[in-house]
Design a protein that fits this description.
This is Sigma-70 family RNA polymerase sigma factor. With 173 residues, the protein is mainly alpha-helical. The chain contains nine helices and no strands.
Length: 173
């Protein structure tokens, strides 16, 4: 989700409990949530269920989100967890220890692993994808990335950390 689509004033009003602002926030976030759920869940029915659950969780917990910058990462993690929960409930994805999942990555054929990594990059929200590509593919420094994006070193580091965590989660599910 693009945080630019949500104004700081709208987010803050929703966070403070303004019912109209919460409704506008849900309306603004819904298309991105649905699009991400369709890309993440195993079926369109699960995507619809995950979308509804994510909207419900957003409605209930919008007051706990600390900042607009954390909003999209939080929301997409809610959708991912819901898709995974639905897949586990259907028996499609067994519960797996994270260490086992990472070890299984090393056993994949290199060509398959490359495709999976490319898909993981594509699944990232754009602001995380840009930072991860600049650092891990183009091998730019943190300072170079900050200058290119017009942001701070701390923001670049945080986005890179979140991007790598999201990619790890994507690759090990």
């Amino acid at each position: 989700m693009s945080a630019a689509a949500i104004s700081p004033n709208l987010f803050e009003a929703a966070r403070l409990g303004d019912a109209g602002a919460i409704a506008r926030l849900l309306e603004t976030a819904q298309p991105d949530i649905r699009r991400y759920a369709r890309a993440t869940c195993r079926s369109s029915a699960d995507a619809e269920d995950a979308t509804q659950e994510a909207l419900w969780i957003l409605f209930r917990h919008v007051g706990t989100i600390r900042s607009l910058l954390a909003f999209s990462a939080w929301l997409f993690s809610v959708v991912r967890r819901e898709c995974l929960r639905l897949a586990r409930r259907a028996g499609v994805v067994p519960a797996v220890d994270e260490g086992e999942a990472e070890a299984a990555l090393l056993l994949r054929p290199e060509a398959d692993l490359r495709l999976d990594i490319a898909a993981a990059f594509e699944a990232l929200p754009p602001h995380y994808r840009d930072v991860a590509l600049m650092r891990d593919v183009k091998e730019m420094t943190i300072d170079e990335i900050a200058a290119a994006l017009g942001t701070t070193r701390q923001t670049v580091k945080a986005r890179l950390h979140r991007a790598r965590a999201l990619m790890r989660e994507y690759l090990t599910r």
